[in-house]
Amino acid sequence: MERPTFDPTQAISIERLGLEGxxxxxxxxxxxxxxxxxVRGVLDGGTLRVGEILAPSPDRxxxxxxxxxxCGGCALQHASDAFLANWKRDAVGRALAARGLSAELRSTLTxxxxxxxxxxxxxxxxxxxxxxxxxxxRSDAVIDVVECPLVRPELLAAKPVLTELTxxxxxxxxxxxxxxxxxxxxxxxxxxxxxxLEADLGARxxxxxxxxxxxxxxxxxxxAALRRPPFQRFGAAHVTPPPGAFxxxxxxxEAALTGAARxxxxxxxxxxxxxAQAQARAFLIDRGESGGVRRLRxxxxxxxxxxxxGRADRPPAPARRAAEIDGNRLELLARRRRIGRAV
Length: 343
What we know:
By secondary structure, the protein is α+β, with helices and mostly antiparallel strands. The protein contains six helices and 19 strands. It has a seven-stranded mixed sheet. Mean pLDDT is 82; it is low at 289-343.
């Protein structure tokens, strides 16, 4: 591809947003801009480092986080909520249209601030310090975050224990992964890419989990401490997902998806769920509470990101389970990361 030619003194107009949220003007990519804006800056390869916004969009708003622009977690905090909701909806419509498909698109539902119940932090250790945060934009560097308007407060409040875990698990100059999930039983921390779990380290981790009141601490896929099951509520059931299993980022998002699924299914007597996530279980339980399920037995349905979906108040049974819904037998055949078919 030819390098775009560009006069740095020339103003350009942003035409649209790319799928990653960057403004596009022909072959030029301009991060942190919006359609219709007129900007000027310095071209670095195919990316414009915007130095001046000559004509801002009416949809431009002030970012709510001090780390925006350096932290790679967010790309569009400078856009209004209304613009962002419409852009996401239109992106889905364009993707369907490109494949000759059409569907009724509902309005975008946005979870409230500080409602994200899970996040994956990076823990980076230097010779003297430890940084806990997120990767910088298009970089392996770690931004030590002191605030995040997306996650629940208890996730950020866990920085002291995450700092200790990084000191124990990362070599000098190394970075480990810290998956943190909040639930009714407390925090569930899943550490990856760390030093091997040996006897002395295991004892220190167990003591740290006790002192920090963690529900569960997992180290490189092994349970280092299980003080109580880190369950999630799916309807009337308490389900303990395995470490690192997929979970809808917010409870509000889970409720919206469950409601949309119930509305789409209506009074159907046979249902096939092909997604293999914990939310399949949430939907069935929720429908049961509405009076439609005569009997429901929970089992391992398979969770995205892991072969097991979890357990309901007891260790998982064999991967094949059955649920009787409205008198019809619905067999949920779990394979790794997918559900088979309903018969």
